[in-house]
């Protein structure tokens, strides 16, 4: 899973006006753990699918695609399909946890939105490192281009 995801979400919990009490810490450890886990896994897998090829060409560490290929001896295409299946399963689990959690609806939405954002950024490749193409066009259309009403 994404290393920074749990830390970012824990900080966001506090920054969104929640205070850490014994009760909220207990909720985060019990019900919130699964919520944060599935969201962080989606962030990691979408990032890997979008960036692994370019990062491997730069000599970066192996990503989930390469790890899957090394573990099973499968082709790159088969590994990508397996990662996509893992993503589909992770989205289902995250949805279940969002409805099951006893944490605030706002926190559950924030965790869900973190996964959605990652999916949006990386679904057409590296939407951060290359900053061109589909992701750039989406961001430009949302925040820069004017539209008539």
UniProtKB/TrEMBL annotation:
One of its GO terms (molecular function) is terpene synthase activity. The keyword Metal-binding applies. Coiled coil: none annotated. It comes from the Eukaryota. This is (wild Malaysian banana) hypothetical protein. Keywords: Lyase, Magnesium, Metal-binding. GO terms for biological process: terpenoid biosynthetic process. Residues 1-93 form the Terpene synthase metal-binding domain. Gene3D superfamilies: Farnesyl Diphosphate Synthase.
